[in-house]
Amino acid sequence: MESRREKNPMTEEESDGLIAARRIQRLSLHLSPSLTPSPSLPLVQTETCSARSKKLDVNGEALSLYMRGKHIDIQEKIFDFFNSRPDLQTPIEISKDDHRELCMNQLIGLVREAGVRPFRYVADDPEKYFAIMEAVGSVDMSLGIKMGVQYSLWGGSVINLGTKKHRDKYFDGIDNLDYTGCFAMTELHHGSNVQGLQTTATFDPLKDEFVIDTPNDGAIKWWIGNAAVHGKFATVFARLILPTHDSKGVSDMGVHAFIVPIRDMKTHQTLPGVEIQDCGHKVGLNGVDNGALRFRSVRIPRDNLLNRFGDVSRDGTYTSSLPTINKRFGATLGELVGGRVGLAYASVGVLKISATIAIRYSLLRQQFGPPKQPEVSILDYQSQQHKLMPMLASTYAYHFATVYLVEKYSEMKKTHDEQLVADVHALSAGLKSYVTSYTAKALSVCREACGGHGYAAVNRFGSLRNDHDIFQTFEGDNTVLLQQVAADLLKRYKEKFQGGTLTVTWSYLRESMNTYLSQPNPVTARWEGEDHLRDPKFQLDAFRYRTSRLLQNVAARLQKHSKTLGGFGAWNRCLNHLLTLAESHIETVILAKFIEAVKNCPDPSAKAALKLACDLYALDRIWKDIGTYRNVDYVAPNKAKVCFLV
Asked: Looking at 403-536, which runs of residues are DSSP E strands?
């Protein structure tokens, strides 16, 4: 033992200190590559497989500017504010009640101290609003959701479903947080099926009031954000019941939205007839105070009906510019599509954070290596690259796709074009479902990729995963939303054969079905070599071919099964096929937007980097569904092998 100590006199503490110093040095080099490393701290050698490609020097500033666009300043303002306020930063360990109060104080600080007023952009500049939401969500996801409840849901319902009188009365109070509010749509027994809501709003012509009632336990409004603690108002979705002079006595006019005060403005006490319960501790997002609302003959003025799409006069006469309940319902939900747009966009923000943490850690963490040589970065292992590099490419792809969605949504809000409304509705449903499902899975992959350290709460994977998980459910269950996309595709398919026109997002289907399906084994698809695999035309043609073939096949299957099972039974029999079709279509849109973004990038180095990411995204998706392409011989065996090796 003594001789060992003489040969190696370094103590255990000194050894630990050297290891710590080496890791800190490597972290410094990662954050500031210009620093000169110490000779005693050799850099990790580049693995052969990752060194075979020519090094690409990327102008990071130019890439960041291209990615973040014109709203960098407002995002940096938000980051600077919260960085300057440690008292408004969410600690790792915090109780539910404390988190709720902190979240409310964070929102008050953002609005009243930092001077950021998100509500002013909800209708007039949605792109800026969603940029604010992305920045706020990166501070604390609960804060992002609470802001969305206040401004996009409660505030958005008032300005989008109401008229000038509602905007004049409520806008300033919603904007400055004097009028905190809720969005009371979901009921205990009805979530996705909004037309099945049971809460009633019965008009009383004698007192010129609506009477809001919860007829049974199943009609209790459930999971209502801002309800348990902070909300003073609620937009309540209820069936409008009007008295009639026929044998029925009443007429159900369908689901409408009403402004219902739930707490006293001065005392904050619950108002008569309103019962509020706390939904309690949740898996995540515990900074948001979700509650349950029950109404027992709560009276509100007739003016509290949000009457953009339907109104009731003093004598109880109903008027609407839309002729049917279904059309009024569709128009109402169409104005609320911003929630889905925001969730898709916010989910990409979560994916950016988690992928960044996992990739940076993988660059710094070293394990094993060649005999008698330094350990290598775990990102040099092919298995780690396969986990994280396609995820990085997907993150860029989803960013550009959701930016496109926000742009289309902004255009829709300005023009109110009916076809654009339908296009945004289907696209937002598809992207919200696809992106949030991917991010939910990616969060677990990132945690596992970071080993034991990924399990530490300080590294955020646990809180990100728990907070994001519900993104797959609220604003529309993902499986239900994908069915909406599939239904819309089938509608377009039918219109195509009846000579109708296809919107821009779906226009590729006409060319696909006319050309690709008539050539199930195109010669170009069999060309080999990296250059052809990296050709964006080949990539997009492959995606479009798959979607068009799935669409043609599922249409034929539905027609066949509907003869014996009826419409509902046939749809259920083909449900997995329909979901695959919807996902394929969304992937096609994503790739098209990624290719377009690469083409439009002004900086050559950033453009080259994005092109590599785009190629990886496309080829990874083709490889994961290689069976589909091989089954119809769209991709020859040798080409499939090259696709895997690229």
From this structure: none
- 47 is annotated as an active-site residue: no
Q: Are 472 and 439 in contact (CB under 8 A)?
A: no
Query: What residues does 426 pair with on adjacent strands?
Result: none
Task: Single out the catalytic residue among 134, 209, 475, 587.
Answer: 475
Flag whether 225 is marked binding. yes
Q: Give the CB-side neighbour count of residue 616, counting CA atoms within 13 A.
A: 19
How far apart are the C-alpha atoms of 92 and 223, rounded to whole Å?
24
Residue 356, C-beta contacts closer than 8 angstroms, at least 6 positions apart: none
Query: Which residue from 218, 309, 214 is spatially nearest to 262, judged by alpha carbons?
Result: 214
Q: Which two tokens stand for residue 30?
A: 């990662």
Give residue for tokens 């695959």. 580
Beta-sheet pairing, 233-243 with 181-184: parallel
Nearest to 180 by CA among 113, 104, 90: 104
Residue 186 assigned ligand-binding role: yes
- Sequence-distant (6+) residues with CB within 8 A of 404 are 593
Closest to 344 in 3D by CA, of 44, 133, 164: 133
Torsion of CA 112, 115, 118, 119, to 10 degrees: 60
Strand 291-295 and strand 274-278: pairing? antiparallel
Q: What is the pTM of this model?
A: 0.84
Dump the DSSP string for 169-238: HHHHHHHTTSS-EEEE--BSS-SS-GGG---EEEEETTTTEEEEE--SGGGSEEEETTTTTT-SEEEEEE
DSSP label at 270? B
Q: Is the pLDDT of residue 28 over 80?
A: no
Taken in order 31, 34, 40, 43, the sign of the CA dihedral is positive
pLDDT tens-place string over residues 379-428: 889 999 999 999 999 999 999 999 999 999 999 888 878 888 889 999 99
